[in-house]
Design goal:
The protein has about 160 residues and is of the alpha+beta class. The chain has helices at about 55-70, 125-135, 140-155; strands spanning about 5, 20, 25-30, 35-40, 45-55, 80-85, 85-95, 105, 110-120. The strands form two sheets. Strands 1, 2, 5, 6, 7, 8 and 9 form a seven-stranded mixed β-sheet that branches. Strands 3-4 form a two-stranded antiparallel ribbon.
Length: about 160
């Protein structure tokens, strides 16, 4: 079954109040020595997203219809672009809080909605992309040659 897409006709959430919060996947155990041991509990955890929309009345009507009908009253998963350091990337997400339970008029024709959302698996760079970004603009081979030259020219 294809994933429902956020309507292209509707604006993205506002950046004001936009917060990405990864659910903590670590366990920390304080030791008697004063040190602590940390370990990862899960490899994949959801990311919470706090968002607000400021919509014109006609957009607000479409938004309410989308949430009610397409998302089965804000229950279904859907695909929407999420702003990350990599740019706007489509993610699978759903509402944690119902967006229609917190809406208010800001002006006669402008409505504000806010909600907390859950991103199933936030997309981050792969290990290969991370290494390439760290080495940029060098390739791994150029970086290795540079290290070899630095070691060869090192004076004790």
């Amino acid at each position: 079954m294809a994933l429902i897409k956020y309507p292209a006709e509707l604006p993205a959430p506002q950046l004001d109040g936009y917060v990405l919060k990864k659910v903590d996947n670590r366990i920390r155990t304080e030791m008697a020595s004063g040190r602590a041991r940390q370990r990862r509990r899960f490899a994949r955890v959801p990311t919470e997203l706090s968002v607000k929309w400021k919509l014109l009345a006609n957009e607000a009507a479409i938004f309410e219809g989308f949430v009610t009908h397409a998302l089965s009253d804000a229950i279904a998963w859907f695909s929407a672009e999420v702003l990350t350091p990599q740019g706007l990337i489509p993610h699978k997400m759903r509402f944690i809080t119902h967006p229609l339970s917190d809406c208010r008029p800001l002006a006669p024709r402008i409505w504000e909605y806010s909600a907390r959302m859950e991103i199933e698996d936030r997309i981050v760079l792969t290990e290969e992309q991370t290494v390439a970004g760290l080495l940029d603009p060098n390739t791994l081979q150029q970086f290795s040659r540079g290290v070899d030259r630095a070691v060869d020219s090192y004076q004790e």
